[in-house]
Amino acid sequence: MLSQTLKYAYFPGCVAQGACRELYQSTQALTQALGIQLIELKKAACCGSGTFKEDSQLLEDTVNARNIALAEELNLPLLTHCSTCQGVIGHVNERLQESQTSNPDYLEQVNGLLHKEGCSPYQGSTEVKHLLYALVTDYGLEEITKRVTRKLSGLKCAAFYGCYLLRAQKLMPYDDPYNPQAMENVFQSVGAEPIYYRGRTQCCGWPLSSYATNESFKMAGMHLQDALTAGADCLVTPCPLCHLNLDSRQPEVEKVIGHKLGLPVLHLPQLIALALGVSPEELGLDRHIVSTKPVLEKLGL
């Protein structure tokens, strides 16, 4: 048993609260089932998903310094459940921590802008951590396995990490950015079978979608097809933006590549929570664009 309740300042991000509400819902269900306490940062702003810096690095750093400062006020790590949010906020945290010694004038400029808005200053005193790594390193896979009431035996799961999770930050202390194993280890801890395929650590194509839509969809289609060819029953991602491109837009992807895919895409908390006995309805599995019925039927649900 864990000696104390894990507690985090929770940054849910925009996509999970809007376009894919079931992902927000499933993270809440999972953390409640595990006894993890989330203090939601309701005053937090969108991280920018990497677009703010195209106009201004100072804008990206200031917006996310404020997000981090909200967690610092609570003296808690900032928890994300989005690969993109993790990459953006985590890298801002790295950059500003370095600025404390290498470029203090820049940090003073950031904090000056925060002060003008009546916000707390960035101190560089906390960690930005994705839910995946909080589960693996803080909670522990053995503890998760102890709580499994519905083993996902026979379910073949293909991980899709999202490039921002693996390589946006300079340091990746929890996994290998080019050959990660954390998600596959989670799959095994809940009784599922990991499926390895070429695209599991690559970009889903989302960053291209606003200006090169066909190329974005071709990229997504390639990954989905590779996972299917490798024998996957479902794709599992820790990123709502990847979820949007791979699930919500899969019908459009099929039109671009010219053939049917029909591969269910699950958010990582949905998969784990299923193994803990949480109902598919509570996890919003009926809200996906690509039906999750084949997954549930394979599990006898």
From TrEMBL:
<protein>
    <submittedName>
        <fullName>Succinate dehydrogenase subunit C</fullName>
        <ecNumber>1.3.5.1</ecNumber>
    </submittedName>
</protein>
<feature type="domain" description="Cysteine-rich">
    <location>
        <begin position="158"/>
        <end position="247"/>
    </location>
</feature>
<feature type="domain" description="Cysteine-rich">
    <location>
        <begin position="8"/>
        <end position="89"/>
    </location>
</feature>
<dbReference type="InterPro" id="IPR051278">
    <property type="entry name" value="HdrB/HdrD_reductase"/>
</dbReference>
<keyword id="KW-0560">Oxidoreductase</keyword>
<dbReference type="InterPro" id="IPR004017">
    <property type="entry name" value="Cys_rich_dom"/>
</dbReference>
<dbReference type="GO" id="GO:0008177">
    <property type="term" value="F:succinate dehydrogenase (quinone) activity"/>
</dbReference>
<dbReference type="Pfam" id="PF02754">
    <property type="entry name" value="CCG"/>
</dbReference>
